[in-house]
Amino acid sequence: MNYPEFDAYTEVADPQNHLVHSYKDELGNHFYVEPGFYDGLLGFKEKRAERFQDLMNEIDNIIKKEHRVIFTADFENPWITREGYIYREIFDITDPLRIFVEDKSRGSDYGD
Q1: Which long-range contacts (CB under 8 A, 24 or more apart) does 66-71 make?
Q2: Residues 70, 34: contact at Cβ < 8 Å?
Q3: pLDDT for 48-102, tens place per residue?
Q4: For residues 100 and 17, what is the distance between their CA atoms, to the nearest angstrom?
Q5: What count of Cα atoms within 13 Å lies in the side-chain half-sphere of residue 6?
Q6: Sign of torsion, CA 12 7 78 69?
Q7: Could you report the per-residue pLDDT of 57-69, keeping only the tens digit for each?
């Protein structure tokens, strides 16, 4: 699956991991985008399109500041682990930017 939102970066093959996309920016900073993070990103792109560029700009700022990042759906259970990398979940980025999506899903109105 192609991640067109990250076309500004150079995709890098990681022989230790074929399931998570790996990229480098023009400064040589390296980062991974796990599928769960990407799904969350697409949700924000769909529901908050007017703020999506702000979100992508903040992702770029994190990459430049931290140099080695794994964008994951769950930092307690990441798909990959790499020494010297930090983990960021989608809400670590969207919450400080005050980009929220209301979760309107509800449990059943029927008891057990």
Answers
A1: 66/29, 67/29, 67/30, 68/29, 68/30, 68/31, 69/29, 69/31, 69/32, 70/31, 70/32, 70/34, 71/31, 71/32, 71/33, 71/34, 71/37, 71/38
A2: yes
A3: 999 999 999 999 999 999 999 999 999 999 999 999 999 999 999 999 999 988 7
A4: 32
A5: 24
A6: positive
A7: 999 999 999 999 9
* pLDDT score recorded for residue 1: 79
The HSE-up count of residue 38 (CA atoms within 13 Å, CB side) is 15
- Given CA atoms 4, 6, 10, 14 in this order, what sign does their dihedral have? negative
DSSP reduced 3-state for 109: coil
User: What are the respective helix, strand and coil percentages of the chain, to the nearest 5?
Assistant: 35, 15, 50
Unique residue bearing structure tokens 């990250």: 6
**Nearest to residue 89, comparing CAs of 38, 35, 20, 37?**
37
The H-or-E segment that residue 38 falls in is: helix 35-47
Overall pTM surpassing 0.85 (yes/no): yes
**What does the DSSP 8-state code read for residue 90?**
H
